[in-house]
Structures are given as structure tokens and as C-alpha cells.
Amino acid sequence: SAVPGYSPGFKKPPAMLRLKRKRLRSSEPPAAAAAPPPCGAAPRAPSAPARRNPFSSLDNAPRAGGTPPPRVRDRRPPADGSPSAAPFWQLLEPVCEGKPAGRAEPSERTDFPALTDDLHLPVAVSEVPSSPRHEFPADWSLKTRLLFMSSYPFTWAEHLKAQEEAQGFAQHCRATETNLPQSVQEPKLSTELRCAFQQSLVYWLHPSLPWLQLFPRIGADRKMAGKASPWSQDEALQQVLMSDWSVSFTSLYNLLKAKLCPYFYVCTYQFTVLFRAAGLAGSDVITAVISPTTRGLREAMRNEGIEFSLPLVEENRTRKRKSSELSLETEVANSLEAGNSMENGEEVAPSDDDEESFSWLEEMGVQDKVKKPDAISIKLRKEKHEVQMDHKPESLALVKGTNTFTLLNFLINCKSLVAVAGPQAGLPPTLLSPVAFRGGTMQTLKARSINAKARVHLAYEDIFSLEIVGPVMPHSLHSLTMLLRVAQRGAFSAALYTHEPTAVFNTNLDNTSPAFNKEPTGKDVPRCGLHPEAWDQLSQCPTLGKSAIRFLEMKDYAYTWKS
């Protein structure tokens, strides 16, 4: 029973004190009050129960000697499961063993916070396949980090021998296709698996400045601050760097045009450009996507004669037009007069407003005393929506076909491509490619395996993880998942950290293109350095929209993902 005179639900002191005094008067039996004291005992005055602090806890309250500890009331959640129905003290209750075991609490992850905290980041889920699939969709965004986790160890990815490392580099340079069995019993003893792992970590970079982190470039000023940059104040050195960069950029485009390079990225301090060869992303011509863009950049591209489109803006307009047509049809069906008035007034009000916006000044006779806005101000007012989308995913620009060559020349000669002040001043953009090119430097993604213990239920289980850090391109993600499918027996999960400005590269560029209905052909796959399965994946139409894959899981050799 509860302690007399104590109420856990003490909320209104005056009312509760009155109720307490009333209970004390009614609970004292008259017979007990009139009973004489035992023989030899000193008479004592009638006393009430000791006063208690109503805000104290039942567990730490002082008890009289021999008094059994009070029974704590049942703290289970209400039967209806409603959070609002639960008392407030239950929300403040610490973690207990009665909670569902399937959910890891922070106190249960203290043994390896650096690993599991990454997997419990809030993720906005936009698409989860209803049934597992044998392949996940193409993700054209750049990743800064991958964290794979499995119940099987990653010892096969540790401490590669010199011969295995050299063999992996040779396989990459020769575009050797590695065919592994569906599963390997002893991954650590498989030389083919370890060589293929080294092969999947290779990428090509320009420029190569080991003391600077050249990816990502957007928002990297803080990381580059204080680093040596002798070119920032030397114009002659800047010209040499830009000349060398132009040669590398042109070399990459020529490889792309000849289908010897599937794609490459140009990372500037303001935007990123993705060049894709014909046959990829559902397009039968070379494409280049730029994000994010500004009104000034788009205006400069128009002045250079570059034809481009804004797919997300056009998609928005199409959606609004369809919705307006549906509403118009509904109004016409309900009222013919309302429909006629809508048709007569359609797109007339804006022009009337533009032409007669200052007519009231003439009526007042002050048209000469008030300065009217000039043509530039009026133009900016009309293009307000275009300025508002600057630096946003909606500002994605698409260039197709021969216009990509014009874009190449524009970027080489564009003065705003390189920062003029700050830590990145005078530093050319970063070029990232899956294949070798003139002036490119071979680099490898950094990989390390970590073993930890996680508390599950009342015991500890081994959790093995593999961390990949660096600019992870689409082909690397596909190659790594193919290797893990074999080495981890078709059971692993991965947290993918996306470079956010590139997530919009997964946008469906053109729904009317006939290439979307074509089956992927792999006749040029051996020449471009991609695995046939990777080519088939990247040749499909992007389906992720403006999002990217954040979480990837394989169970029984089938994928599920969240974006």
C-alpha cells in the first residue's frame, strides 16, 4: 500500500493538503485513541504521522525502523499504448530492462559510440522497396564516407600483402574484370578477393596537393585555412596551375567522348559538374549536369551560346499547369460562366499590371515628381522566382550533346571558376575520374576495419565494421557491395554519407527521351573500365529524384535501401 500522507500526483498543494488533513482525521479510530497505555509505559500525547516532503521519492524517503519498503506502483505503459496517457514521471524514467530489446538505447551503445551512433542518425525515408531486390538503383551522388557493418569479420580487408596491393593496381590500370563465386568460405585466404578489394579503392585526382584536402570543395574553407598556398599571391603560378588543369580537363572530355571514360566530376568551390558519357543515365548523348547554379552563372552560359535546361523548374511548371487545367475543367463543368471568365482573364492580369502599374501616378498628377523604376529593376522583379532558386537543388542545369563541348570551353575560360580570395584563392577545381587521364594522380580510398562489442538484450555480441573514407564515386560503391556480397555471405548493412550538393544528380533528366526505353548494351563496357554489372546499373534511368541512398542493407543476397 502507499505511504500514508503521501501523494505521487502532488500537483495542487492547497487542495492536496486539505485532502491530507481530512484523511488523517478519518483514519484515526476512536477506540485506539481511548485505549489506555500499556503497563509501565510512559503516557504520550496523541501524535500524527510525521510530516513528509511531498516532492521526495519513495525510494529515498526516510522510513521508520522495521517498516517494509513501500511497493512501487506499476510503471508499465497504458494498455492503449498512447504516449499522452502515460504519467509524466514515466517519461523521465531511465532506461530499464523491460524496454523492447530490438531498440538500442544510448546507454547500451557506450562500448562503441563512434560506430553505432553513425547508423542511428535521423534518416528521411522517401522510398523503401516493398520487396527486396537483387540490385539497388544507381546513385550518382558523391559519398564522403561509407560505414559497412556485419556479423562476419572484415579481416580479409586488413593488411594486404605487397603482391596483392600491386596486383590490385595492375588490375585497375588494365580494367581487368574479376569474377568471384557467390560465396567464399575463407575470405582471408582468398587472394582474388583481396586484390579485387584493392582494385575497387582506386580513383584518379587532379590537382594533387598532399597537404590539402581537395574534396569536398564546397564549404571547405575552414579545413583549408592556415594551410600553405604559395599560389594565392603569385599570379604566374596561378596561370601555370590553370594551364595544367585545362590540359587535364580536356583530356578527360576526350576520353569521355571516345567512351574510354564513363563519367567524371568537376568540383569547384561554388558548384559541381558531372559529365556522363553517351549511354549512361538513360541518355543516348553526352550530358553534363551542374548544381547548384546562380542567376549570374546561367546568364553567362546563355551569353556564351550554351543551350541548357532546368529540369526541376520545368517539372514544377508542368505540374502546376496540369493542376490548373484540372481545376479549370472542374469549374467549367460546374459553371459555364465561371469558366468563360477564367478563359478571358487567363494570363491577362499580369500584362495589365505590368503596363498600368503606374497609371495611378498620372491620375494624381505626380508622375513627373516620382522616379519610376528602370528597365533593369522591372526585369529583376519579373525574374524574382529565378533568383530565389539560386544555390538550391532546383537550380540544377542540364547540358546535352554538342553543347557540352561549348561548356568545356566556357569553364576553362570562366574567371569565376576559381576563388579570388580566401583559403581556396587561385586553386583550380578538383577533377575526379574512375580512369586514368593526362595529369591525373592515382589515389586510393582509405579503408580500416573495426571490431567492437554491442549490448544486445543482456549479452554482448561482436559487431564488425569496415569504414571507407574519401570521394566514393558510383562505380566504387557498386564494386564494394559486390565484394561484400561474396565475403559477408550476403548479409551486411551500410550507412552512406552523401556530399549533399550532389544528391540532386539523381534527378530524372528527360522523361521523353527514347533512350529510356532501350535495353542497356554492354558492347563498350570493357573499354571504359567499368564492370558489366556496374555499366548496366549506371545506364538505367535515375529513379531517386533529388535524394540519395542513405542506408543500404543486404539480407539473403537481396537489397533494401532508404533514401
Overall pLDDT, averaged?
Answer: 78
What is the SS-derived class? alpha+beta
Shape: globular
Share of helix among residues? 25-40%
User: In percent terms, what proportion of residues is strand?
Assistant: 15-25%
Query: How far apart lie the N and C ends?
Result: 53 Å
Radius of gyration: 35 Å
This entry's quaternary arrangement is single chain
Biggest sheet: strand arrangement: 6-7-5-4-3-8-2-9
Low-confidence stretches: 31-35, 72-126, 338-356, 512-524
Largest sheet: 8 strands, antiparallel
Q: Quick one: how many beta strands?
A: 14
Tally of helical segments? 19
How would you sum up this structure, described in words?
This protein has helices at 13-27, 30-34, 88-91, 113-119, 162-173, 191-200, 221-224, 235-257, 295-303, 311-334, 336-345, 349-356, 359-364, 375-382, 384-388, 403-413, 474-487, 525-528, 532-539; strands at 143-150, 202-206, 263-267, 272-276, 287-291, 308-309, 397-400, 430-433, 441-444, 446-456, 459-472, 491-498, 551-555, 558-562. It has 563 residues and is an alpha+beta fold. It has an 8-stranded antiparallel sheet with strand order 6-7-5-4-3-8-2-9. A 6-stranded antiparallel sheet has the order 10-11-1-12-13-14, with helices on both faces. A hairpin with a 2-residue loop joins strand 10 and strand 11. Residues 31-35, 72-126, 338-356 and 512-524 have low confidence and may be disordered.
